[in-house]
């Protein structure tokens, strides 16, 4: 582990270099700054994501949509917000963080997540149809001291990215700002319905610099309000305008179901988000979590296949839209499959239970009773770690949705208890709802996977371990050498 003095000096040097790059990118010779940005990214990612520079250069070629996207972000984002996002998300998390979480995972023989999701509260001012968080009830809260201790202990293991879910996190605005001020080497992404975003809060976020937003949107005004309540769509658009005016960074979080797939993937939908300054669009496959959840809301096989192709079309290097779209379920191959159980991320609910995933409500540990390291060493996380991956097809990444026999085995083996308190249910009952879907999706997933990967596997395993990173670096170096030989 790096000493505090060496870390401070390295961060300062990177900060000075970043100021110069942003200044150049804001001037008349801004195109020249692209190489500096890519070189900086290469230095940050070479030990954890070899080959990333090649992809970045390809996307940022002169005149490309991603070059314009980058310059728009630089021009329209507050300097403190932009610089802090790169410092904390790039330097602290992607560079130092991944390196430290990987080494600590090997040291302590447990998963150490790169990202932690936690719920400050289960309280919410909305009652959205199909919300997975509703099963926790609305009267649970983590105290400021509990959240502070979680972040402090997680940072000691290398984690610097935190996503705040709920409930509605902004019910706890004051505590969130206090956490962001104290932990100014971390980046916080708030998943919010945006109804509590106002001008004063935007100014506070601009000042602290290390908060970004993923705003819940489900489609057009009519469909959005039918799920989230009358006036919700207009609240979101108003929040977008306020955040854009203050130079903040934000995107969207959208759950797609059988009934809104076409709408939330349409040109009109994306164009509206882009017009309102959104930089990213998270898409989450509807999960039938919680007793009485409606499995009929799950997309059909044809709809999921459509989303797979559509999201990749939108974010393609050529064509598409100037917004970074991601599909949490269909993009599994880019992160080596399931990322839960602390492999890349995990979830802490508002009662303090540490869960493998926001959709997997079973746990052996609570942050109010154990240290963070002890929570990561709990039996259900170790069961996840022992069994990764569930199969070689990364279009079937989840032990609940696409591999419904796996989750009940993990829960039974680990002795984990349900962390739903309003309507608890067994893993067996949960997976009974997903089994028909899994059986229907499996042949299509196999067909799609083999089209891209004829051997049935990727060339290298994209898992968070030193061995796999070294293997990946070697393969990429060989590919680059071959490409250069062809050019010569």
Automatic annotation (TrEMBL):
Pfam families assigned to the protein according to its UniProt record, in alphabetical order: Radical_SAM
Matching PROSITE patterns: RADICAL_SAM
InterPro entries documented for this protein: Aldolase_TIM, rSAM, rSAM_sf
Sequence ranges assigned to domain Radical SAM core in this UniProt record: 108-321
Sample GO molecular function, one term: catalytic activity
Keyword Nucleus set for record: no
Name of the protein in its database record: Radical SAM protein
């Amino acid at each position: 582990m790096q000493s505090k003095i060496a870390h401070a000096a390295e961060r300062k040097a990177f900060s000075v270099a970043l100021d110069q790059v942003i200044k150049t990118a804001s001037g008349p010779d801004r195109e020249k700054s692209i190489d500096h940005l890519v070189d900086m990214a290469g230095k940050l990612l070479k030990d954890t994501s070899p080959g990333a520079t090649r992809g970045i250069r390809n996307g940022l070629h002169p005149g490309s949509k991603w070059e314009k996207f980058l310059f728009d972000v630089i021009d329209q984002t507050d300097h403190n917000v932009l610089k802090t996002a790169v410092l904390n998300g790039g330097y602290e998390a992607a560079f130092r963080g991944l390196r430290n979480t990987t080494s600590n995972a090997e040291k302590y023989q447990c998963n150490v997540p790169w990202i932690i999701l936690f719920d400050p509260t289960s309280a919410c001012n909305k009652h959205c149809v199909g919300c997975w968080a509703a099963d926790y009830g609305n009267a649970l809260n983590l105290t400021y001291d509990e959240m502070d201790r979680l972040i402090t202990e997680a940072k000691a293991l290398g984690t610097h990215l935190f996503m705040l879910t709920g409930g509605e996190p902004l019910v706890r605005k004051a505590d969130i700002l206090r956490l962001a001020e104290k932990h100014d080497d971390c980046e916080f992404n708030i998943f919010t319905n945006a109804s509590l975003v106002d001008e004063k809060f935007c100014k506070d976020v601009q000042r602290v610099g290390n908060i970004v937003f993923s705003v819940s949107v489900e489609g057009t005004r009519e469909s959005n309000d039918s799920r989230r309540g009358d006036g919700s769509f207009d609240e979101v658009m108003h929040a977008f305008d306020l955040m854009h005016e203050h130079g903040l960074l934000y995107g969207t979080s959208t759950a797609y179901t059988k009934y809104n797939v076409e709408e939330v993937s349409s040109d009109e939908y994306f164009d509206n988000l882009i017009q309102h300054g959104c930089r990213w669009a998270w898409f989450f496959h509807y999960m039938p979590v919680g007793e009485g959840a409606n499995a009929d809301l799950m997309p059909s096989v044809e709809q999921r296949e459509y989303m797979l192709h559509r999201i990749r079309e939108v974010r393609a290097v050529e064509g598409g839209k100037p917004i970074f779209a991601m599909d949490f379920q269909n993009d599994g191959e880019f992160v080596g499959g399931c990322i839960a159980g602390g492999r890349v991320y995990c979830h802490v609910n508002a009662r303090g239970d540490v869960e493998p995933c926001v959709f997997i409500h079973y746990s052996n540990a609570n942050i109010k009773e154990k240290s963070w390291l002890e929570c990561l060493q709990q039996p259900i996380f170790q069961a996840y770690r022992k069994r990764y991956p569930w199969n070689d097809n990364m279009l079937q990444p989840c032990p609940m949705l696409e591999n419904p026999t796996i989750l009940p085995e993990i829960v039974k083996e680990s002795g984990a208890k349900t962390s739903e308190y309003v309507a608890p249910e067994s893993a067996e009952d949960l997976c009974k709802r997903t089994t028909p879907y899994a059986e229907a999706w499996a042949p299509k997933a196999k067909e799609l996977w083999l089209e891209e990967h004829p051997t049935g596997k990727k060339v290298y395993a994209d898992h968070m371990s030193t061995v796999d990173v070294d293997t990946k670096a070697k393969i990429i170096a060989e590919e680059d050498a071959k490409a250069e030989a062809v050019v010569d």
